[in-house]
Amino acid sequence: MNGGAMRDQWYPVAIAAQLPQKGRDSLLLGEPIHIATDETGGARVTDGAGRILPIISRYGHIWTSLGQPEQDLFPIPEADQPGRRLVDVGSVKVRCSPLRAVENFLDIAHFPFVHTDILGSEPHTEVERYEVEIRDDVDEVWATKVKFYQPQAAKSAQGGITTEYMYRVPSPTCSILYKTSPPRPGEWDVITLFVQPLTEETCEVWPWMALFDDDSSMTDMIHFQQMIFVQDRSILENQIPALLPLDPGKEIPTRADMTSIAYRRWLKRHGYTYGAQLVAA
Questions:
Q1: Are 62 and 187 in a shared domain?
Q2: Paired sense of beta strands 244-245 and 276-277, if any
């Protein structure tokens, strides 16, 4: 599979402030790419044939594409909001489908069992009813009115709170989470999952955050988010099947899986099938 419609998407491949001086080899949709700095100190990304690929520097990362994107990179207005801390978390390589990585990020029900006493705890395991839609005007998947009790919703949290969430999927391998900001009631903290598809069964995940937090050190905020994702990695690397099934009959959904169902439907609608298990003919 060569990526099809996914070749024309934008993907993160490096942290802008940490461009490798001597260059770094990587993969994108199974094809080799090389990331380096040019003579001006800016980013330069080439494919295996030496072709210079388009780039965008935004949200702390360098983005590129193997194809010809028809649109600019999706907007995150909060990135320009005064008072926010912009956090480049780093990257983690994961042996899982890039689509599985996004789906796991959208899953609320696993909080008490995987992130025990941090993002969830027993007996607070019930997922309350929430709303999901595919917004045709922006062509994105959105989940709203999501609420969940969390012992420590963020590094800045001082005790347990009922956290409100919104989830947004603006591209096949990126998801944006808006959640209650503990130090700033009425505002949303923004936590993103930017995924670079290396192959259909491996990916590199580049989390990024835009937070209201005047007390925590940058190191503490990075370590907190890295800890959360490392807890997820063992789950992701043991999922069966490895590819994300797009046939709704392959896995049994529950009410908590409404966002995942919409995400799979949206992927199938657009032919975003790199890393997916297709319906048997």
A1: no
A2: parallel
Round to whole Å and give the CA distance between 69 and 64.
9
Q: How far is CA 93 from the centre of its chain?
A: 13
Question: In sequence order, what are the residues at sequence separation of 6 or more whose Cβ sits closer than 8 angstroms to the Cβ of residue 241?
Answer: 250, 277
Q: Are 101 and 107 in contact (CB under 8 A)?
A: no
CA distance 200 to 212: 36
Mean of the per-residue pLDDT values of the chain: 86
| Cβ–Cβ under 8 Å, residues 156 and 128 | no
274 band by pLDDT with thresholds 50, 70 and 90:
very high
> Is 79 domain-assigned?
no
More confident residue, 229 or 252: 229
Contact partners, residue 204, CB within 8 Å, separation at least 6: 26, 91, 92, 93, 94, 195, 196, 198
Q: Using CA atoms, how far apart are residues 187 and 245, in angstroms rounded to an integer?
A: 36
Host domain of residue 4: 1-73
- pTM for the whole thing? 0.88
Pair (59, 148) in one structural domain: no
Distance CA 190, CA 74 (A): 14
**Domain endpoint, select from 73, 106, 137:** 73
CB 16 within 8 A of CB 66: no
Pairing of strands 43-47, 31-37: antiparallel
Is the pLDDT score of 279 beyond 90? no
Half-sphere exposure of 182 (CA within 13 A, CB side): 18
Bridging pattern class, strands 161-171 and 174-180:
antiparallel
Handedness of CA 264, 202, 19, 223 (dihedral sign): positive
Cα–Cα distance for residue pair 7/153, rounded to 1 Å: 36
